[in-house]
Amino acid sequence: MAKLIGFKKKNIAVFISGTGSNLKNLIKHSFKKNSKFKIIYIISDNFNAKGLKYAKKYMIKKKIINYKNIKLAENKILIEMKKNEIELICLAGFMKILSNSFIKRFRGKILNIHPSLLPKYKGLNTHQRAINNKDKFSGCTVHYVNSKLDAGKIIIQKKVRIFKNDTNEKLAKRILKQEHYLYPKALKKVLINL
Ligand code: GRF
After folding, report:
1. Which pLDDT tens digit goes with each residue over 172-187?
2. Which residue of 15, 16, 32, 160 has the fewest CB atoms within a 10 Å radius of its CB?
């Protein structure tokens, strides 16, 4: 009991653009007994992002941001982050690139999950590129976000075997499953020091 005195779960915002399976998984983890975080805000640049349904389902605040003007968009996000006392941002399938000034405001406090074994295959189409190169393994990485695309300090990685008859879809499915294992594990590591 004494251990719990003074402990406050960290406020996390998750940024998405699509399905939101990582978001859903993080929400579920946040409900676990020993969880050190709560997801209190969802940001999406995409009005049609399927993952937005989890905002309603789990009663989490959400905001859909019009990204026509990046500066305005990021200003709106920053206001919400401040108002809601967000301590850590988790990008999970968020398809927009954050500006340097935004990253500076949250230095060391933005995480991303990427579907490859970084530094290999930064950017898009990671699975197909790994298959085309006849790699034996691919995987996923959780890393800090810095000013260069998918190049921030690596927090944790998980290898996934590539089979001879693998397709983009098959490999993507197996890697996504590992992403769901990896992101909460990365958070555990990061939150100890936050
Ligand atoms: C994941 O593979 C993530 O690594 C990536 O986009 C996908 C998002 O999946 N960059 P979901 O929206 O969390 O289901």
Report:
1. 999 999 999 999 999 9
2. 32
Cα(92) to centroid(ligand 1), Å: 6
Ligand 1 atom with minimal separation from the 92 CA: 13
Does residue 126 line the site of ligand 1, with CB under 6 A? no
Q: What is the CA radius of gyration of the chain?
A: 17
- Residue of 23, 27, 113 to test ligand 1 pocket, by largest number of atoms within 8 Å of CB: 113
Banded pLDDT at 3 (limits 50, 70, 90): low
Pocket lining: 13 vs ligand 1, CB cutoff 6 Å: no
Each residue's pLDDT tens digit, 136-171: 999 999 999 999 999 999 999 999 999 999 999 999
Percent of the chain having pLDDT more than 70? 97
* Euclidean distance between CA atoms 179 and 139, whole angstroms: 8
Strand order in the sheet with 88-91: 61-64, 37-44, 10-16, 88-91, 110-114, 137-144, 154-161
Whether 180 is a known active-site residue: answer: no
| Pocket flag, ligand 1, residue 30 (CB < 6 Å) | no
